[in-house]
Amino acid sequence: MTNSPELSSPLKLYKRLMAYVWPYKWVFLASVLGMAVVSATEGGFAWIMKPLIDGGFVKNDANSIRYVPILIVGIFIARGLFGFLANFATNWVGRNVIFQIRSQMFARLVNLPSRFFDAHSSGILISKLIYDVEQVMNAATKAFTSMVKDSLSLTFLFSWMLYLNWRLTILFLLLAPVIAVSVRIISMRFRKTSRLIQQSMGEITHVVQEAIEGQRVVKIFCAQEAETRAFNQVNARNLKQAMKKAAAAAINVPVIELLAAVGVAVAIYFAMQQSSAGRLTAGEFTSYITAMALMMPAIKRLSMVNEVIQTGLSAAQSVFGLIDETPEADLGTQEIKRASGKIEYRQVSFRYPVSNGPILDSVSFRIEPGETLALVGASGSGKTTAANLLPRFYAADAGEILLDGVNINSLRLNNLRSHIALVSQETVLFDDSIRNNIAYGMEGPIDDARIQEAARGAHVLDFAQQQPQGLDTMVGERGVRLSGGQRQRIAIARALYKNAPILILDEATSALDTESERVVQEAMRALMRNRTTLVIAHRLSTIENANRIVVLAQGKVVETGTHAELLAHNGQYARLYRLQFSDSAA
Asked: What angle do CA 227, 228, 229 make, to 5 degrees?
């Protein structure tokens, strides 16, 4: 994950965070205005104590306190109205900030290269979108609200105390450097534990997601205890870090309160001496003590807000790290209106960052428009990798791939992929209707006639018409309400609806039973008609009619020819075919 120097600076992080608030500056200023009025009322409440005590209780002058009850009611009416304005405006800004950040995160997520997803678990990425962003909002709004409101309260109260008795107030201020040092030490602790808590939340999400998605495997292998142990381990790490943070938070408030209490005690001691000497009236003394008492909750809240800020900054580092990830490289400038489907691999080589050697090593082959070429080989020979390079899920390390004579790196990504349809072994369906899954990704209104045609060609209507809602039947998460063959037929219908001139079939029938495979094969023949097709084959019997078969071994092309030619050659393909045929017979 990106971790630039900018992301390690708390000040730069907070400035970047506040940049999201700027578009809503007028609403934000309204909230600040509301906070300022609420804070001013606290100073006003301390001020009103002076005439109330001196005029009403010492001098017994009813005229001097005639308007005090009205003023007190007015103060609390103002606090209620402007407090509502401040809270609502702040939350409105905060939720809009979260909306913007989440939108940016998701937009970046779907545009990241495949290599990124190979290196990061989906659970941790989901945790960033859900958990980390909420912590960012707390830092951007709730913490800021507390800082502004309580800082203004302290300013008004401190100014009034300074006006009443500047000597006592300066004495109270001598403890400020000690408080600042304490806050800094605890801040560092907060930020470290917050970062570790975020990591552990990602681990928890990851373990839970795997257990839910693989719940049938967990049950059949009686692995409930193993999964529970794995969850308890990551949960315990989260608990450990949460308790470290709780300990820092628990000690933070008492330390700050103790230091403030010492200052208050010293100020009261000297105030009582001045009152005894007649240099401080009873009203001034009460007003001064009231101001000091009102300062204590504000100081406490400010000491607690540090935890929220440090947690939010740690989360912001995680969030902006994702936003700053480099998206898929798209340096192409050319476009093809509709490809004829001529594909050529020229000396293509590729390796994954963690692999010991090349996955593909100088691979070359050609597919003419409308032809079917099958890639065959043992597991790990590079078949799927070769197919993944065509839509540029990965970029080749060496060599070039041409589409209609144009290097695919010269084409815009969306343009290149618009000419390609993919049906893979692992069918991905979305929790939506059959109709919307078939039309997935296509712009504009759904063409119902084309949907019907695609569904008929892929034999989707065979089972969809048996449902009360027909094509509007919901498939469930990842198509859980359908059989494997039904899901595969919807994937084929999706490719038919897209009507792309190039088709990639990645072991599309290897996980199906014989009856389902027969129906799916029939649908695939309709799909392959008049299309350039690249087939990754597991069952060799399914590619006997391919125009050409390329046999890969350890990332290299070892044989090329038709099914009959390769059997006659009696090489690697013939050996694989005999092996598979004998397994089937057995």
From this structure: 90
Higher model confidence: residue 218 or residue 103?
103
> Angle between the 484-498 and 448-457 helix axes, to the nearest 10 degrees?
130
Task: Give every strand in the sheet of 406-407, ordered side by side.
Answer: 360-367, 343-350, 398-403, 406-407
Strands 556-561 and 406-407: unpaired
CA–CA distance, 495 with 503 (Å, rounded to integer): 8
3-state secondary structure of 353: coil
Q: What is the pLDDT of residues 484-512, one digit of tens each?
A: 778 888 888 888 888 889 988 887 665 55
Distance, in Å, from the CA atom of 337 to the CA atom of 350, rounded to the nearest integer, reads 29
pLDDT tens, position by position, 383-423: 889 999 998 988 999 999 999 999 999 999 889 988 988 88
Q: Is 362 helix (H, G, I), strand (E, B) or coil?
A: strand
Torsions phi, psi for 403 (to 5 deg): -120, 115
Closest residue by Cα to residue 47 from 66, 78, 71, 63 = 71
Alpha carbons 387 and 504: distance in angstroms, whole number: 7
Task: Specify the DSSP element, H or E, that contains 212.
Answer: helix 176-213
Angstrom distances, CA of residue 217 to CA of 119, 224, 479, 484:
24, 10, 17, 16
Residue 453 CB-density burial (10 A; 0-12 exposed, 13-18 middle, 19+ buried): middle
Short-list 143, 259, 128, CA closest to 190: 143
Instruction: Give Cα separations from 24 to 31, 78, 91, 104, 387 (angstroms).
Output: 11, 24, 12, 17, 47
In 3-state terms, what secondary structure has residue 325? Answer: coil
Extended beta strands in 299-371, E state: 343-350, 360-367
Instruction: State phi, psi for 419 to the nearest 5 degrees.
Output: -95, 0
Per-residue model confidence as pLDDT tens digits over 212-235: 665 655 665 566 777 788 778 888
Residue 374, SS3 per DSSP? strand
Q: What is the Cα–Cα distance from 372 to 356, expressed in whole angstroms?
A: 32
What are the C-alpha distances in Å from 254 to residues 247, 263, 298, 452? 11, 14, 14, 70
Tell me the three state secondary structure of residue 406.
strand
Mean pLDDT over all residues of the chain?
A: 79
Q: Residue 25: enclosing H or E segment and its boundaries?
A: helix 25-51
DSSP letters for 159-191 = HHHHHH-HHHHHHHHTTHHHHHHHHHHHHHHHH
CA distance 401 to 343: 7
Largest CA distance in the chain: 121
Contact 307/248 with Cβ under 8 angstroms? yes
| Cα–Cα distance, 506 to 390 (Å, whole number) | 13
pLDDT at 403: 93
CA atoms of 267 and 262, how far apart (whole Å)? 9
In angstroms, the Cα distances linking 59 to 46, 49, 271 are: 19, 14, 21
CA nearest neighbour of 522 among 462, 480, 436, 464: 462
**Count of Cβ atoms closer than 10 Å to residue 401 Cβ:** 21
- β-strands 502-506, 532-536 pairing: parallel
